[in-house]
Design a protein that fits this description.
The protein is α/β, with parallel strands linked by helices. The protein has two domains: 32-62 and 341-449, Aspartate Aminotransferase, domain 1 (Alpha-Beta Complex); 67-339, 3-Layer(aba) Sandwich (Aspartate Aminotransferase, domain 2). It has 14 helices and 15 strands. Helix 12 packs parallel to helix 14. It starts with a helix and ends with a helix. Bound molecules: 4'-deoxy-4'-aminopyridoxal-5'-phosphate.
């Protein structure tokens, strides 16, 4: 065995014995051990290179190997490694100020570590807000099937993907779900706008049937990402906002994947001209260089907490949330996004990529290709007339073949049957034109070979 092979073999053995992998048990196909990254590419311990078409878990927006971010973290850790946010520190203040300059309304930033945390904060805070506003009966939160909002018990309750949930029930009570718009599977012949209004109307009906005085908020992603890249028509999103306002229900927008340029706007909701009450963010906020998330809460909601007596402050604390180095890295990360025009780049590359992939629709099992910015879904079906999701074995083979050809792609979907039959592309926003050509070439080759 060569030295490299031996090194990898030993690590894989130790991995097998000690590391409980996320989402799966260790299986016989030992996962690659990733050693380094540069731009959109990662390299494993055997020297194999992969174009990371998923940006890790949709997170490494500015790409790998940014020395600027490493330096900022190093300098900040030397100067001040930690101060809890019961006190304050400069990076947290500067980042919050910056965030407000990027958002349309005035918000207060509540820092946590993960995006599940950020959504939990949103739920707790909104329930308390309604209590303090004299509407303590408003506690229910409406979310959509196929949406994903995190893995903790509240965020998982908001998630609309049954397979992720049923083994951990009972989850936090008070979460309700409605179907999201799915244009590909809408009733045949129904115009998209009429369909969008009908989908929005489902939310209104839920509010009315449940008694509007019990509904605290609606949570949704600007577009459903992990549930299969379901891009709504602006009519839907505007109508949901209108319905929320009409019934005194707050609107939480989960920007965890869509934020920081992914969809070709700095934030996904900016495609739809809406004013969220609460915005949750993570992932691309630091491009995953360090853990950090934000719950941005509109100022008038925050003001309600100030008016109250000492027992009414928001009783939520989080040891690591808003770590100084993480905040400093987030600020520098946003600078990179701005300086390199990565939002525009995501928009341009997304248009190019969608265009270049269109030929795939000629294959008998490619049902739909859709995307916004650098977030693209390729929906695979058994056959086009039935639209039945492609069988798991076919998808698994395609994903493995892509990887064998140096391209990592994701797989998602969450239909009722639980198939993950949608191939996801969500590469770093710093992709080069050559990277784009490579992704298209591999996908075309692999899909054609799997007919
Ligand atoms: N919201 C969305 C839309 C997500 O995609 C995710 C993670 N994939 C989360 C929330 C939860 O993020 P985390 O894993 O950091 O808790």
């Amino acid at each position: 065995m060569e030295q490299n092979d031996q090194f990898t073999h030993d690590l894989q053995q130790k991995d097998h014995e000690n590391v409980w992998h996320h989402m799966s048990m260790y299986n016989d196909n030992a996962p690659p051990i990733i050693e380094q990254g540069e731009g959109a590419w990662i390299t494993d311990s055997l020297g194999n290179r992969f174009l990371d078409g998923m940006s890790g878990l949709w997170a490494v927006n500015v790409g790998y190997g940014r020395e600027r971010l490493a330096k900022v973290a190093y300098e900040q850790l030397k100067k001040l490694c930690y101060a809890p946010l019961t006190q304050s520190h400069e990076p947290a203040i500067r980042l919050a100020e910056k965030m407000n300059s990027l958002l349309e309304d005035d918000y207060m930033m509540f820092y946590s570590n993960s995006s599940s945390d950020a959504n939990e904060v949103a739920f707790k805070l909104i329930r308390q807000y309604h209590q303090q506003n004299g509407e303590g009966t408003r506690y229910k939160i409406i979310a959509r099937y196929r949406g994903y909002h995190g893995s903790s018990l509240g965020a998982l309750a908001a998630t609309g993907q049954a397979l992720r949930k049923y083994k951990y029930e009972p989850l936090t009570p008070g979460f309700l779900h409605v179907a999201p718009p799915d244009h590909y599977r809408r009733p045949k012949g129904q115009p998209v706008e009429a369909y969008s209004l009908a989908c929005a109307r489902e939310i209104e009906e839920k509010i009315i049937w449940e008694q509007k005085e019990t509904i605290a908020a609606v949570i949704m992603e600007p577009l459903i990402t992990g549930g299969g890249v379901l891009i709504p028509h602006p009519t839907y999103v505007k109508e949901v906002e209108r319905i929320c306002r009409r019934h005194g229900v707050l609107l939480i927008i989960d920007e965890v994947i869509c934020g920081f340029g992914r969809t070709g706007m700095l934030f996904g909701h900016q495609h739809f001209d809406i004013r969220p009450d609460v915005i949750t963010m993570g992932k691309g906020l630091t491009s995953a260089y360090l853990p950090l998330s934000i719950t941005a809460v509109r100022k008038d909601i925050y003001e309600k907490f100030k008016e109250m007596d000492g027992y009414s402050h928001f009783r939520h604390i989080n040891t690591f949330g808003g770590n100084p180095a993480a905040c400093a890295v987030a600020l520098e990360n946003i600078k990179i996004i701005e300086e390199e025009g990565l939002v525009q780049r995501a928009r341009d590359l997304g248009i190019q990529l969608l265009h270049d992939l269109q030929d795939l629709l000629e294959l008998p099992f490619v049902g739909d290709i859709r995307g916004l910015g650098l977030l693209i879904g390729i929906e695979l079906v058994e056959d086009k007339p039935s639209q039945a999701p492609a069988k798991p074995e076919r998808i698994a083979k395609i994903i493995a073949d892509c990887q064998a050809n140096g391209l990592i792609v994701g797989r998602n979907g969450e239909t009722v049957e639980g198939y993950h039959h949608i191939i996801i592309l969500s590469p770093p926003l710093c992709c080069t034109d050559e990277d784009l050509d490579f992704m298209v070439a591999v996908l075309k080759r692999v899909l054609a070979a799997n007919v």
